[in-house]
Amino acid sequence: MSQHATTYVPKSRFAKWFESRLPLAGLVHSSFIAFPVPRNLTYFWTFGAILIFMLAAQIVTGVWLAMHYVPHANLAFDSVEAIMRDVNYGWLLRYLHANGASMFFIAVYIHIFRNLYYGSYKAPREVLYLLGIIIFILMMATAFMGYVLPWGQMSFWGATVITNLFSAVPVVGDTIVSLLWGGYSVGNPTLNRFFALHYLLPFMIAGVVVLHIWALHVVGQNNPAGIPIKSGKDAVPFTPYATVKDLFATVVFMMFFAWWVFFLPNYLGHADNYIPANPAVTPAHIVPEWYFLPFYAILRAIPDKLGGVIAMFGAIVVLALVPWLDTSRVRSANYRPLYRQFFWVFVIVCVLLGWLGAKPPEGGYVIAARICTAWYFIHFLVVLPLLGLFETPKPLPSSIAETVLGKKGGAGMPVGAAAEPSTRG
Amino acid sequence: MIATGAVGAVGVGALAWPFVASLAPDAQTVAAGAPVEVDLAPISPGQIVKVFWRGKLIFVRNRTEEEIKAAQDVNLASLPDPQPDSARVKEGHPNILVVYGNCTHLGCVPLGNEGPFHGWFCPCHGSVFDTSGRVRGGPAPINLPVPPYTFVSDTKIRIGEESNAAPKAAHA
Predict the structure, then answer these.
(1) Which ipTM score applies to this complex?
(2) Beta carbons of A161 and B26 less than 8 Å apart
(3) Which contacts of B151-155 are long-range, i.e. CB under 8 A and separated by 24 or more positions?
(4) For A166-242, where are the alpha helices, taking DSSP H only?
(5) CATH number of B26-159
(6) What are B126-144's pLDDT values in tens digits?
(7) What are the chain A neighbours of B17 within 8 Å (beta carbons)?
(8) Which domains does chain A have, with CATH numbers?
(9) Over chain B, what is the mean pLDDT?
(10) Name one GO molecular function term (chain A) (predicted).
(11) Which residue numbers of B are catalytic?
């Protein structure tokens, strides 16, 4: 990362000695202090910081819970109840962790939709975007395995349904499922390995987050205008501007988080998960956690086992292809009158899919889910490629500063210090 | 260079194998797959009993005359997974149906005596099974499979062992 502009100059003798051996302070300075931030960013750009906070919060509460939790089919449920009743503040740790998963997904979905609206995935940010998709997939795997650990009815049957998805794979499906289970059905070996992986994956997420931030600081942030930083007037330094704004947004988000934890701690969960796992009885109405509902609706919309599984995984794969499916050169939907409307239709379709995923698979719900599933794929595979060819974008502003200050301009960063990092290569 | 790479690849593969193999069912789990005996005498006509073999749920259903007739009087060509009822029960015991108790779609436990054919109905994704455990609708791709079992007497079956086969160690 030596290509970053850095105005860091070590002052003390120790700082000079250390910096010449490991330029850590210079890296922090160039990434989080002097880093040029587009001056027109909105609060939608604070969710990266919120997500880092959520990852840290989940890791800390998770490590503490692991000190009390027992990953064994006969003991897991009781150990979770002991955490709730006997462990000092165990209820708080567990409610923070369980609701924290939901908060993590709320933040990541806002982050993703912000990305889609402002075309942040477009060149030169494709790798940055793909790293984000990898984080999203790791998050889903982590959340799924975490939900299995309390070993309640929803844990057990969620694990059964999701692992059985792999049995749809031709020829080797049953072998894969047997390797996932470590037995002939979901059982103690399954719980044990899910616990091991649930503990491992967040640290893998943290690793990919480092790459994600690294890539971000190479290409710079996108912004509501979708045009690059052209001069010092377009940017402000990361500290104090972005630092304080991110901190403020994180605190507001923490209040939202706390509201769930203290007032509705079980609202986002499912009552059936307070019944110990019973392999002889499936709950009458089995649904995944809310953040998986749109994908679950897509799975159920296809009246064929293998087809449903392909569609569900395809819904994530198609997201990864967006930088190459979108043919428009204009990034921000603010200057794309048609895409802007299709974007909101897509948002509504996703919310509808989430609602349908929680409904029983019968009658009108199935038909609605099929229409929404079809539109989900049409949006990516047909609308995005064609819009770029037929849409006439609005004229782009000549600079970021102009969108904020009008044509008069104003004070920004010293010219030169704020050139977009990508131009420094 | 190629030789070195090939040796390296074989080495990596040889080292990876134990890691993958350790995920498979272990000796204890396999040993727990010994056959189980089920006494049929207490199961009255129309009743479904749930038992476990190798950790998997199994339905033992004592079918009524109507249920047997419904299972037999079916146009096989109309079934998604055509199989005559006679191939799913043991000869001389048309009333006893033994099938795995997890839906062949994604593994939920179907509810007995429910659905349009009064066989089973899966509440998760809507698969329908008849009184022979054959799929008749919904996303399930195949019939509920019949596990290996044998009649040791007229009122007792042993699950995990096929008819007339010599007793053998259970394995995966």
Answers:
(1) 0.82
(2) no
(3) B151/B90, B151/B93, B152/B37, B154/B93, B155/B39, B155/B40, B155/B41
(4) 173-181, 188-219
(5) 2.102.10.10
(6) 899 999 999 998 889 999 9
(7) none
(8) 30-288 (1.20.810.10), 290-320+337-392 (no CATH)
(9) 89
(10) metal ion binding
(11) 125
